[in-house]
Amino acid sequence: MAELTQQQKEAYWRYNIWLTTVLLIIWFVTAYIISGLLARWFNQVTFLGFPLGYYMAAQGSLAIFVIEIAVYAYLMNKKDREYGMVEEE
Amino acid sequence: MKRTWTLDKIFGLYTLAFLGVTILIGLAEYLLGLPPTWIGWIFMALSIGIYVVIGIITRTSEADQYYVAGRRVPALYNGMATGSDWMSAASFISMAGALSVQGFSGLAYVMGWTGGYLLLAVFLGPYLRQFGAYTIPDFLDARYGGNIPRIVGVVAAIACSFTYLIAQVTGVGLIVSRFIGLDFNIGVFVGLLGVLFCSVLGGMRSVTWTQVAQYIILIISYLVPVVYLSWSIFSIPIPELTYGQLLQRNNARAIEVTRDVKEKETRALWQKDVDDIDAKLKSGGVPEDDAEKLSAQRALALRQAMAPAASDDATISRYLTVPTGVGMWNFLALTFCLMVGTAGLPHILTRYYTTPSVQEARTSVAWSLFFIFLLYFTAPAYAAFARFAIYARLVGTQIAELPRWVTLWAPAGLFEVVDRNGDGLVQWADFVIKSTDFVVLATPEIAGLPFVITGLVMAGGLAAALSTADGLLLTIANAFSHDLYYNVIDRTASLKKRLTITKILLIATALIAAWVATYRLAIIVELVAWAFSLAGASFFPALVMGIWWTRTNRAGAVAGMIAGLLVTLYYMIGSRFYGVSWFGTQTIASAIFGLPVGFLVIWIVSLLTEPPPRAIQEIVTNVRYPQGDKVRAATSGAVTPTRA
């Protein structure tokens, strides 16, 4: 594996920080705003028989967390391959 | 790849065999009338037998194998192992029960215990793997240097893990005594045998593969009853889709119960109890012991006197009502504390040391959450079906002809059915729940399903409790033998000596935990909830700052960990016993204060003192860029014991 230049390293790290920030914002909005503070308001809507606020806290938010981590693993591992940072067995 | 194939085959066959045996037992029950106690025995002997066999096959005495399973566990399997390591008796036995009583407020647990994995994935997991230590105190030592951070880490790790362990052992005792009819104290020790076999013989390696086997049992047994119920009520086998309809039905039933005249009569009688106790307490002259008993009675009566909907003309039951004001603050604070605690529990964090690479560590966190999600996604449905079953099969029955499950569960003392107004019928307010732990285990019986499903759920609960106990035992024993004995007391101890000490400690810890569990202290359940706040407030800031900020130094980390712990402990003990209250926050959400203090203290103290040595700063920067074993090699002098 070739040694990375300082510039490449910075670009890699910036990408990581950007991705992490976006995911954390989605995480925060899902868990604390939609399923928390605004749940009462969302409950006025019915979805599949569920009040939507309840549905988001019980099911929706969980699904979003799973997708977020999968996206993180996929994108970061792709970036690692791009920069030749994958450990070859 | 080839290896994964073999593993897939082994665990695929294992899953089929388990399902096959379950169906056979079901047939035997249906055709031959196999008695319930036998079914209980078969399920217990079978599952513990499997764990013991796996323990024997995967035994090892190599350090890398013993501590981190050779760092060769594929992401998918590490995900499953983490899933069962993580999902304890609390997730399996208690969570859906709590949800079925608390309704919306209980969802803090569902969100908190899953959302924490995002924090783990982006802040800690891959970086800890890149650092490549054996234990969390190892990391603290390598990052901050010296014994003090290590010892603070050891103390915090043991404190969280031990309380958690006792709760698992208690869960094992409850299951074994209820279904097999063994004495609680004997049940506790029988269960421990299964755990000890694995951890003593093969350390992390055995524990990992046993946990995979346990995950498969626990997820099947959690899903089967709800899928069955969903199928029998709605003809659709996906409870997560159908229980919306059930929530509507339960809601309508709750409003009915609120308006019912007989129910009102019963509630009025409970309310009278409350008023009587109030009057007695007010008049004074009640001795302190009696006063405490009276306030416990008052709390119970008050709960029974509360209608399931706020008023006669309400259209939405309390179950679906979103809390406001202080209730909302507590909901958010608890969700946050559980998330941070999840990302700070040492027995979970060490699991990410076992993957072959940083990339696999990332994938592995994703798999972990997916496998955990399967259960948590179903828990709110389980709760709704349980509530439905109680509305449909208990409320309105004759008190003289109570359903069989009521009499079967009565000796466990988790609930009572009383006829308050003496009309010979069971009202909703006649059903006195003392602990919601019966809900998951008893729902198959409440809904009138065949006993084989109850046996299955029992095996699942046992798997959940034992797998978590395994991981915790190993964490505790390693903290003593590897972190304390080897790294602090005797650096010259041979590998053989160290492993022997670990094994003796495993047995000793297990015995002490079992012994404490036989006292059945009520405080244990509370302590487990506290463990999350303690782990969150102590480890999380020190680990995150250590990875993300090169300037963090030893003084800052130690001060931050201690400050976080102390503030959290102060609020916990203060709010639980001495009436301290900041913004009306409940005791289990104490880390909401300790955590920011921890971060702040690390930041300020680090800036006020010398920066860490250049070499350490470079390592911290390098951890950002995955590069195989390089970083590990650079730090291993200080961190890893010599290879055997």
Please provide a written account of the structure.
The complex is a heterodimer of chains A (89) and B (644). Chain A is mainly alpha-helical. In chain A, 75% of the residues lie in helices and 4% in strands. In chain A, helix 1 packs antiparallel against helix 3. The model of chain A has no long low-confidence stretch (mean pLDDT 88). Chain B has 644 residues and is mainly alpha-helical. Chain B is built from 25 helices and two strands. In chain B, strands 1-2 form a two-stranded antiparallel sheet. The two termini of chain B are 27 Å apart.
Task: List its salient traits.
heterodimer, A: 89 residues, two-stranded antiparallel sheet, 75% helix, B: 644 residues, mainly alpha, two-stranded antiparallel ribbon, 2 strands, globular
List the helices and strands and how they pair.
The complex is a heterodimer of chains A (89) and B (644).
Chain A: H1 6-37, H2 39-42, E1 46-47, E2 50-51, H3 52-82
Antiparallel strand pairs in A: 1-2
Chain B: H1 2-32, H2 36-57, H3 63-68, H4 75-86, H5 89-102, H6 107-131, H7 136-144, H8 147-180, H9 184-234, H10 239-259, H11 261-283, H12 288-305, H13 326-342, H14 346-349, H15 358-376, H16 379-393, H17 404-409, E1 415-417, E2 431-433, H18 438-446, H19 451-489, H20 495-517, H21 523-548, H22 554-577, H23 591-608, H24 614-622, H25 630-639
Antiparallel strand pairs in B: 1-2
Helix pairs in contact in B: 1-9, 1-19, 2-9, 2-19, 4-9, 4-15, 5-16, 5-18, 5-19, 6-13, 6-15, 6-21, 7-8, 8-9, 8-19, 8-20, 8-21, 9-19, 9-20, 10-16, 11-12, 13-21, 16-18, 18-19, 19-20, 21-22, 21-23, 22-23
Task: Provide a concise account of the structure shown.
In chain A, 75% of the residues lie in helices and 4% in strands. By secondary structure, chain A is mainly α.
Instruction: Supply the helix-strand structural class of chain B.
Output: mainly alpha
First-residue to last-residue Cα separation of chain B: 27 Å
- Counting copies of identical and different chains, the oligomeric state is heterodimer
Strand % of chain B is: under 5%
- Determine the fraction of residues in helical runs of chain B and give it as a percent range: over 70%
Distance between the termini of chain A: 13 Å
What's the order of the H and E elements of chain B?
A: HHHHHHHHHHHHHHHHHEEHHHHHHHH
Protein chain pair with the most extensive contact, residues per chain: A-B, 47 and 47 residues
Biggest sheet strand order of chain A reads 1-2
- The tally of structural domains of chain A comes to 1
Rg of chain A, rounded, reads 19 Å
Average pLDDT rating of chain A = 88
Shape of chain B: globular
**H and E string of chain A:** HHEEH
Name the overall outline of chain A.
elongated
Radius of gyration of chain B: 25 Å
Name the strands of the widest sheet of chain B in spatial order. 1-2
Tally of extended strands of chain B? 2
| Amount of helix of chain A | over 70%
